[in-house]
Design a protein that fits this description.
Number of strands: 9
Radius of gyration: 16 Å
Shape: elongated
Strand content: over 45%
Distance between the termini: 21 Å
Number of helices: 0
Largest sheet: 5 strands, antiparallel
CATH superfamily: ApaG domain
Structural class: mainly beta
Length: 128
């Protein structure tokens, strides 16, 4: 598990290898990840958007941006957490992801960024 705290918001990430399949005559490697966002601050916050940088072992890079996470813009009160599962496809058996969430502090109405630590994606059959 990979973890990082930014401005009182703790991000924890666990990854899984989901399998391989062919798409458009090309092998793809499917990975899942589970993210827990824990509010360790004294203020309620809301996640408004996300920014991902996904890189595979062939040095292909993809930027993914969007509103919320999996169709939600969760409000997280002090001491509470929000967990969600998602995934990505790579064209190689190894890769990594990192990024950030844009959030709003409900007390100060200030926007801030919470960093998502870099985490590895690797298929178990490709490891020595």
């Amino acid at each position: 598990m990979v973890q990082q705290v930014t401005r009182g918001i703790k991000i924890s990430v666990e990854t899984t290898f989901e399998g391989t399949f062919y798409k458009n005559y090309k092998m793809h490697f499917a990975f899942g990840y589970c993210i827990t966002i824990e509010n360790q601050s004294k203020d309620s916050v809301q996640l408004t958007s996300r920014h991902w940088k996904i890189k595979d072992a062939l040095n292909n890079e993809e930027i993914v941006e969007g509103e919320g996470v999996i169709g939600q813009k969760p409000v997280i009160k002090p001491g509470e957490s929000h967990t969600y599962n998602s995934g990505c496809l790579l064209t190689s058996p190894f890769g990594a992801m990192r990024g950030y969430y844009n959030m709003v502090n409900f007390t100060s109405t200030r926007k801030f960024r919470v960093h998502i630590p870099s985490f590895k994606l690797s298929s178990p059959f490709a490891l020595n």
